[in-house]
Amino acid sequence: MRIALLGAGTVGSSVARMLCAEPELWGERAGRPITLAGIGVRTPDREIEGVPGELFTTDFEGLVDSADLVIEVVGGHDPAGGWVRRALGAGTHVVTANKALIATDGVELHALARAHGARLRYEAAVGGAMPVVAMVADNLAGDRILGMRGIVNGSTNYVLTRMERDYLSMEEACGLASDLGYLEADPSADLDGHDAANKLAILARHAWGGDFGPEAVDCTGIREVTSEDVHAAAAEGAVIKLIARAVGPAGPGDLPTLTVRPERVPRTETLAGVHDGDNRVIVDCAAAGPIEVAGMGAGGDATASAVIADVLAIARATA
C-alpha cells in the first residue's frame, strides 16, 4: 500500500519517522507492505531525522493521485479539504487528524467516500492517542448512548493544571504551554474552546446521527478564568476544567444538547484527576453504564500512533 503523507509539522514529522523506522512491523500488522511514497511539504528543503530526503515534494496533487492512501495532517479547511476531496473522489482512502474539517464537513466527506468505495478514518482528530472515536462509533454500537462528558483538549488542560499547581497566571501558563508546543502561535482555537467544540460535534454525530457541526455547541473557552477563580475552587475542594458535555436528544428529530465551558469539578470526581496534556471521556450508556477512556490528548508521537493505527485498520480491511 502506497502512502502519501500531506504535512510535516509536529504530527506529520512523527508519522514520517515512525513509518520509516519500522516498515516491517507495520507491514506485518497490516498484512501487506506499507510504503511511505512521499511527503508533501511547502518548502522542498525540509528535513526530518531518519526520513530519506527524496521523499519530500511540493507536488501535493501528484502525491494524492499516485497513492493508495492519503494521510492528511496539514489541518484547516483550505487547501487540506481540497486534497481530501480529491483523494476520496478518486477512490483513494484517507486518514486525517483534521478535526476542524471533519467537524464541519464530515457528513459530506463520508458520503463522498461511500460513493467512490473509499475509507475515511480520523481517530487522531479527537483526543490524540485516546481511542474514543472507535469506542463511540463502533464498540458501543450495540448500546444506546445517553450522554458523554470529558476533557478533550490537552492544551487547555495543561494550562489549567499549571495555574492550579504552580500558582501561575493565565498569561504565564499559556507562555509555558507555548514553549512546550502545547499551544500554537495563534492559540485561539484552544483557548476559546473551538477545538473542543469540533471534537464534541464529531463524537455527538457518531453517538446520535444527524447533520450538524460545531455551530450546535454552546461554547465558552478559558480566557476569562483567573488565578483567583482557580484558587477559590481549590479552597472548596474543586478544580476548574474545560468540560465538553453532551446530552442525548430529548426526542425524535431533536438535536443533542452540546456544551463546552469551564466547570468546577469536585476533586472526588474522575475528571478532576486528569492533568497536563491528558484527555478523558466518560460515555454514559443505557445497558453498560458509564464507560471511560483516557490517554494523551496532545503531542506529535501520541497523535501519530492514532494516525498509523487508522492506516493499518484500512490496510487490513481492504487487503
From TrEMBL:
NADP(+) binds at residues 7-12. GO terms for molecular function: homoserine dehydrogenase activity; NADP binding. The active site is at 199 (proton donor). L-homoserine binds at residue 184. It catalyses: L-homoserine + NAD(+) = L-aspartate 4-semialdehyde + NADH + H(+); L-homoserine + NADP(+) = L-aspartate 4-semialdehyde + NADPH + H(+). Residues 131-312 form the Homoserine dehydrogenase catalytic domain. One of its GO terms (biological process) is threonine biosynthetic process. Keywords: Amino-acid biosynthesis, Methionine biosynthesis, NADP, Oxidoreductase, Sodium, Threonine biosynthesis. NADPH binds at residue 99. Residues 7-123 form the Aspartate/homoserine dehydrogenase NAD-binding domain. Pfam families: Homoserine_dh (PF00742), NAD_binding_3 (PF03447). Its EC number is 1.1.1.3. InterPro entries: Asp/hSer_DH_NAD-bd, HDH_cat, HDH_short, NAD(P)-bd_dom_sf. Its cofactor is a metal cation. Pathway: Amino-acid biosynthesis; L-threonine biosynthesis; L-threonine from L-aspartate: step 3/5; Amino-acid biosynthesis; L-methionine biosynthesis via de novo pathway; L-homoserine from L-aspartate: step 3/3. Catalyzes the conversion of L-aspartate-beta-semialdehyde (L-Asa) to L-homoserine (L-Hse), the third step in the biosynthesis of threonine and methionine from aspartate. Belongs to the homoserine dehydrogenase family. This is Homoserine dehydrogenase. It comes from Kytococcus aerolatus.
